[in-house]
Amino acid sequence: MVSLLSFLLVIAICVIIHEGGHYMAAIWRGVQVHEFAFGMGPGIVKKRLASGTLWAWRLFPIGGFVRLEGDEDEPRPGDVPDPARAFNVKRPWERFVIIAGGAFMNIVLAWLLTAFLLSFNGVNDLKSPVVGKLMPDYPAARMEALPGDRVVSINGQEINEWSQIRDTLQTLRTDEVSIVVRRGESEITLTGEIPIAAEQGVRLWGVQPSTIRYPFHKALFESLNYCWSMSVMILDGLWQMLTGAIKPDVAGPVGIAVMAGDAARQGFWNFIMFLAVINLNLGLLNLLPLPALDGGRLVFLLGEMVSGRKFPEKWENRIHIIGFAMLIALIALVTWKDIARLIGD
What we know:
This protein is an alpha+beta fold. The chain contains 9 helices and 10 strands. Strand 7 (about 175-185) and strand 8 (about 185-195) form a beta hairpin.
């Protein structure tokens, strides 16, 4: 039940933010919006605003859409078409902004959620060699290390970064360790044994890094670095899967539901980080130049802006229909594998 509710919450946020991006861009460029819907299938709750836009919550909470004047063939009951405000009469760059608006808002949400996390929860400081938490029943606790200790040296080897603590311990040829730490204004020498752990096969001192929290204005800047690094990782991983360098490992709706449930059980901040990562993935993947995705439509618009000629609409629609069918088949395959993996587990 936790996985299902978490999944529905994640999907609702991702879809509403994505479609909200299309909606706001359309309103900004003066395009008539006939409907803003969350979910598919028959409507459960419907309300038509004074502007004429129908807001609908539909039965199946998967996906959503914004229906624009001039972006489909036939009007639906209740629509009051205004051809002067049609999507297809707008300039190419305006249509580009409207199509890109959805993915853009997913990426913006990922950025804001990451900033929220960095400011109010904080992240591990993987730069400074400062002790954060002590793990019970490990050498650090027995050697009487304390949170806030800054590691100066290990067996005479100078330590300047967090990663050097682990790296230096692995190069030692003896279990006897002497660690100099700065505690307040004093330097203290901690001595003891750090043997090679049988299960992990490495020396484990038993400390976790300190937590660093940023003022929110600085967190907004720092989160850009985090989102950029994560984006590079996502795209690099996708490229390696496409080229066969690594085994494809993707998750469909079932897999995402399981991960959403796991994140929710681990606490609020883990769920926030999961939500940020999912939105970043959704935004980036939607911008890929593939038929049926927003990125595929943007390719045609870029071609129109460069050449000054619009690609025949009927052929563009056919290409997107083929791409959509392939996308549905891929989702079905991934979902089947997710189910098979759950049954196997």
